[in-house]
């Protein structure tokens, strides 16, 4: 049975992580609390806090305040989701109505700002300059990744390098920072901090690649409409494989429709089916595995311990994730 | 001739501050650079950088990197202006078209996020935990102040304490942090850091009170439409004095219209004229002076030096400002 250790650990840690998130929400201005509770209670895997906690413990840091460090990145993550939702005007987030459909865009923007600010405060309370620097870089790179993604929207010619740099910025950087901050707070030597960061960056890239593959899975499996990225004009890897498989004529038609952002729903469905039938989603997962291998190599550098087994299992969780 | 020292100093420092802001803008994702240049080039008094620089120099810190510290708060300030403009949907900022009327709200939200993130990075590069903590608190309190202001919008019964706490959060906290960070980077003792923070907080409160008085000045004097705060449903001090001067019946009518947010333009003009005629704007300035006195008392604690004279002049600048 896979991930049994991870599941057992999660069942122990998740309530504490959620309790800390609840308390952090209570420290925010009361006006934004309902909105922040909405986003926290909508779920989420709490991957980032868990990575910080496991990395720190593996490196012999187990103070209670590790939860504050862990949730700081979850708060930053939630802040980006809130601002994204306003920007994308997406109706659904984590299977529930997106925040801006229930609250005003003003409240959502400010709640995002407040979450980011309070996450930052949690980190600076450690009075550890390297931690603060790491967190500030995480904010800045995540933000740059999102901007780059929007810049490349509806561009069928975006290069693979550019796509990788976008997902590194918007997703992997934060996950990398989660591991790195766990190592920094544990006062690990430089090579260990770097290995933790590399581990995180590579599972982060793999996580997003798998996410991009799942985006074309059947709605019955994921509970989300299939092909959302296609509709949003994101040339993710499965879609890139699809586009490359087209004849020159079909590719020109696809490019025109992709640029126009007006691909009808039934055509989106056909494209998603083709991607699954031709296995472009699985090919994306195979590519993701190459990053997971890099993650495991980085993990080798870290000392042995039961948290290392959990981190190892986490790469399997990222690999096998179906929704 | 008043403020002659300050003006001379500004004419020396402003080009360097602006040069650093230009360079900081170039470090941002290229997509948001035009927007960020727009907000920087629209002007601004650069009060915050100047306060950081002067405070640090007075306390014998004069490294070139003081400009980076100074502009970090200007970047945070610009970020809040950008998010505010989207939220308020205000057509004009600093006498020029507001950013979101020229760029998409998406770009404005992201440019704000990027500015805040990069300002934060500039601070964490100092590898000084107290500086990072101060900056993170500045973000968080500024954000809370803005949320509180929106919560109190169109509420004619908002208390004076609440109003003061709003302007402390949204304006004075950042100005206080500007002075405090100058003292922290100079490794000043705790009582000096605290005096610098107090100086900043009190001129910050005074600055906003004067701003609120200026809001009811004639358009010919300021270049801005008179009574903008009234239209936005902000019960600022001049408006509070006006409301308190009304008969019970008139006050009920005012409250109803204020709550509804539907005060017609010609009535706004009449109210602005009444505020000027009855001197409620000047009464607000008198109240602001009480905070400037507190600022000067805090300034007394700081050591002597030519920057102290400039900081002294700055209180006069805040007091005498007409637009």
Record keyword descriptors for this entry.
mainly alpha, about 75% helix, 16 helices, homodimer, about 325 residues, 2 strands, globular, two-stranded antiparallel sheet, Farnesyl Diphosphate Synthase
CATH architecture of chain A: Orthogonal Bundle
Describe the sheet with the most strands of chain A: 2 strands, antiparallel
Could you say what the CATH topology of chain A is called? Answer: Farnesyl Diphosphate Synthase
Rounded to an integer in angstroms, the radius of gyration calculated over CA atoms of chain A is: 20 Å
Shape of chain A: globular
Helix and strand pattern of chain A: HHHHEEHHHHHHHHHHHH
Most residues in contact: chain pair = A-B, 41 and 41 residues
Oligomer: homodimer
- CATH class identity of chain A: Mainly Alpha
Q: Write the CATH homologous superfamily of chain A.
A: Farnesyl Diphosphate Synthase
Strand fraction of chain A equals under 5%
Distance between the termini of chain A: 18 Å
Helix content of chain A: over 70%
Mean pLDDT of chain A: 91
Structural class of chain A: mainly alpha
**Which residues of chain A form runs of ≥5 with pLDDT under 50?**
none
What would your notes on this structure say?
The structure is a homodimer of 323-residue chains. Chain A is mostly helical. The first copy, chain A, has a single domain (4-210, 295-320), classed as Farnesyl Diphosphate Synthase, CATH 1.10.600.10. Helix content of chain A is 76%, strand content 1%. Chain A is built from 16 helices and 2 strands. Chain A has helices spanning 4-26, 33-41, 47-58, 66-88, 99-102, 105-124, 129-151, 160-185, 190-214, 219-222, 228-231, 237-245, 248-260, 265-277, 280-301, 306-320, and strands at 92-93, 96-97. In chain A, strands 1-2 form a two-stranded antiparallel sheet. In chain A, a hairpin with a 2-residue loop joins β1 and β2 (96-97). In chain A, α4 runs antiparallel to α6 (105-124). The longest helix of chain A is centred in the middle third of the chain and has 26 residues, at 160-185. The model of chain A has no long low-confidence stretch (mean pLDDT 91). At the A-B interface, α4, α6 and α7 of A face α4, α6 and α7 of B.
